[in-house]
Amino acid sequence: MSVPVMNDITSHKHASLFSHPVKPKDAEGYYDIIRRPQDLKSIRTAITNGSRAVAATTQSTADTPSANSPGGAPATPTQMPSTSTHITLPISEELLPPRGIVNSAQLEKELMRMFANAVMFNSGEDGVVSDAVEMAKDVEASVANWRTAERTSVYEATSNANAAGGGGGGGGGGGTPADGDDEVGGKRRKF
């Protein structure tokens, strides 16, 4: 899901400031001010947890009988609709941020929380604050590019599946067109 963007983020010149959780001995009073701390290591762990949940749900969906599968046999990934771009996961504490990240919006939110925490805790406009602001701008641009690419690839996959005949549209009964009718785009048109 997000390996490329996380690699870009963790290779940023200021990423070392955010690589691990803040230790109480390094920043006295941090946990009194910051109620939901966040760091890159925790974000990676949350992505891993979310990916496991998605994989498990996808596998269980493939193993359950489907109305589309003949005789109620388990649906195989090739029998599952190829245009599906959404997976519904059960709500659980393990999948809610910050423990689990399953989509790009949650990832972006947790990254921005990390930078906001740095700005809230540290005083002044220089040092950690300026580094956090600089990295936040770079990360925001990187995530925006990634989300655009993600949406484009989903759109192209859906368009290709629809063009290949997988996109449902109904053809008016599945027979041949009557005399004088021409079936165009799933609709009948009189001449």
Automatic annotation (TrEMBL):
GO annotation, cellular component aspect: NuA4 histone acetyltransferase complex
UniProt-listed InterPro entries: Bromodomain, Bromodomain-like_sf
Organism for this UniProt entry: Diplodia seriata
Name used for this protein in its record: Bromo domain-containing protein
Residue ranges, compositional bias (Polar residues): 51-69
Keywords: Bromodomain
One Pfam family per UniProt: Bromodomain
Bias (Gly residues): 164-177
